[in-house]
Amino acid sequence: MALGDASEGLPQAAGHAALLLIDVINPLDFQGAEDLLGAALALSEPIARMRDAADAAGVPVIYVNDNQNQWHSQSSRLIDTMIEEDRPGRPLAERLRPREDDFFVIKPQFSGFYATNLPVLLPRLGVTRLILAGFAADICVLFTAADAHMREYDLWVPSDLVAGENDRRARWALDIMRASMRAETRSTEELKLRDWLAADEPG
Q: Which residue range is the domain that position 23 belongs to?
């Protein structure tokens, strides 16, 4: 679902939360991607489980995806390109392909907030808390988290739902998000979505 399809009647997000899936529709054929490929494919199932949990809880799912230098492209064309062409990231795109009711935001740079409609969409959904999952932990996830923090969103970046080309840099990025952005970084094994959502409930 594109923001242009949205109306004032959008349902309000449960727990004032949204799940952002960052660059999960990804060819994984860029320089250095071979170091990310295995971890990214391994995360397809954990990310899918979090997406299912978000569905069950009434938490909207928002794909925040790089335009892959297709400046004239639409979300459907980007997705079809990943799935129809024989690219390393095809299994990931097939497993995590957006559904009809998911939102899809195309970004031109690292941050999901830069030159996108995400800053307009989130308030319409009543969102004040964000769960970030995807790639790469030390680049697009980190930059999106920084912009979210500056806009005073509460953050959960589950350590088992993000990956990068280098494990050390991914851990470094998680440390920065935890220490400097007050992000929760416990894994989904340590913290369940229902418990994180309940922590924001009055009383």
A: 16-194
